[in-house]
Specification:
By secondary structure, this protein is an alpha/beta fold. The chain has ten helices and nine strands. About 2% of the residues have low confidence. Keywords: Transferase.
Length: 272
């Protein structure tokens, strides 16, 4: 199996080296590694001096979705994997993906469990991020349980469901996996095969208040697809829950326009 690795990065030169080292230490080697530099102004452009095999592509800063999509468009393999530049793969990750898909040829996407390191210390992962395999659409509605760095997809699946939504500043992976899981089964390799690093102050998820504002965009977009009645009912129930959470926040911070909008949305999805 030929595998492309797509690594979006923005001003992460030091940790990008760690990510790339983990790729090149895989027991199953990828065919190509594509680094999409999303407008960095650090030393990222020098990465080929350390890793000459890398396919390095620079673009103006337009966001992680745009960077991943550019990597997909420039890949030459049937299987695409993603690795965020501040994450790291364990050495058998690709080999276990290959083994899984050779034994499950009807499944076009798989992902792995993960380990979290924050401020240099391993932290316990909350139960809401527990991993599941198979028909997992309902499990993906509340929160994003699939890290891009954990996933591998066949290009046929990407062509069918579409690329990452570049209009979303965050939660773009959550939205992508909803489009996948509403129609396709997903394989779980139930081992911790990636390590996600971070500091409490540098994650996109803490940059934006009210992350459910972006999740409801993804859920409402999904309602336009042809779904089973049960799936649409689950979507509406989730929208009511998330808009109710947003309403509490809007009331707390006296956001009058948001309060009215959220009340209307709650009534709409509750009785639709």
């Amino acid at each position: 199996m030929d595998i492309s690795v797509v690594i979006p990065t923005y001003n992460r030169y030091e940790v990008l080296q760690r990510a790339l080292a983990s790729v090149y230490s895989q027991t199953h080697k990828p065919k190509e590694v594509i680094v999409i530099d999303d407008g960095s102004n650090d030393e990222t452009s020098q990465i080929k001096k350390l890793f000459p095999q890398v396919k390095y592509i620079y673009q103006k800063n337009t966001g992680v979705s745009s960077a991943r999509n550019l990597g997909i468009k420039n890949s030459t393999c049937n299987w695409i994997t993603f690795l965020d530049s501040d994450d790291e793969w364990h050495k058998d990750k690709l080999a276990l993906h290959v083994e899984f898909h050779k034994n499950n040829r009807d499944i076009l996407m798989s992902y792995t469990d993960e380990k979290w390191i924050r401020d240099g210390i391993e932290v316990k992962i909350p139960k809401k991020f527990h991993k599941f395999g198979g028909d997992i659409f309902e499990k993906c509605l509340s929160h994003c349980i699939i890290a891009p760095s954990a996933a591998m997809m066949h290009i046929d699946l990407i062509n069918r469901v579409g690329l990452f939504d570049e209009s979303l500043e965050v939660c773009e992976d959550y939205e992508m996996w909803l489009r996948v899981t509403c129609r396709d089964k997903v394989g779980l390799i139930d081992e911790k095969l990636i390590t996600k690093y971070g500091r409490s102050d540098d994650q996109l998820s803490v940059k934006f208040w009210g992350m459910d504002r972006f999740r409801v965009q993804a859920l409402e977009k999904l309602l336009s697809l042809e779904l089973h009645l049960e799936q649409k009912n689950l979507l509406r129930e989730t929208l009511v829950k998330k808009y109710s959470v947003l309403l509490k926040g809007a009331i707390k911070y006296d956001k009058m326009l948001d309060i009215e909008e959220y009340k209307i949305k709650i009534e709409r999805y509750r009785f639709e």
